[in-house]
Amino acid sequence: MKSRHQILLDNSISATLAGIEIYNKPIFSNREASFCFQIVNAWELLLKAKILKNNRNQLKHIYKYEGRFIKRNRSSNPMTIGIYEAFGKIRNLDTRIKSNLEELIAIRDAATHFYYKSKALPYLVFTLGTAALRNYEKCCRDWFSTNLDKYNFYILPIGFGYTFQTFSKLTTRDETEEIANIMRSVSKKQSRLKSASPTDFQFICEIKIQTVSVKKAKDADIVASIDSSGADAQFIEREVNKLDKYPYTFRQILAEAKKQKNIKPNKLSSFIRERNIKDNPAYHDYTYRSKKHESENKPSSDIYNYAFLQLVINDPYFKS
Asked: Is 238:217 a contact under the CB 8 Å cutoff?
């Protein structure tokens, strides 16, 4: 029989997948608002599952109370806490997670009362939603050791029709007051979090899209031909931040792997050396302090991706 927190986790994952499916449909009216409903609900269930797991699955920790008595709804069923109350019950919940969800909640709440036709809303939801999904996937791994690799955990910029630009360039001039307020709030939080200590979580995920000639397309992360037979074929390039692709340091890989195996630092170093991991871009890359250092091949640090973390966890080289 499944535990209570596992049931909530399963329901949370189902809600997340429903939101992704809705968002990725080629034709779907009210796409952004519907996605926000699902992803906020999914996060609320995930947070409650974490609270139950931390408290031996005792439901009293997610119930609402009036004095000493459980608060009940019109059907006389126990009422549970909302997402904001759940924030306060999880110790050391990353600020970026809370800030990201606060903006998605604001969009959800605005959509509850009125449908807004907005040029900026699709971009807001795409950047916030992508970050919410990345944060969600990491929390499932960290909190419940649940791997979501079997799912396509991404939302698509449908038709690449959005005006991909930073929030500093988005204008509130043609937006309703409610959407403009959300845009200003996102922009302020984005500026504030830039100076905060870096973590593995994101507030927003912005991407850049540009058109380049075929001669320059070899370095693109994702390349799509528009007219491969023409002499002047053009390509779409999506740039991906290196730290998004390789988010872990050596110490972070070690710390994450130790949650499942007893791995010593020298053993991990030997594994990296013997398997030539540093020569394999499928697992590793370098960071550089400047372009000059990069041209001189003087890296400042080693960085690794999630595929390498999974390799360390699953490889028989390391005994459990």
From this structure: no
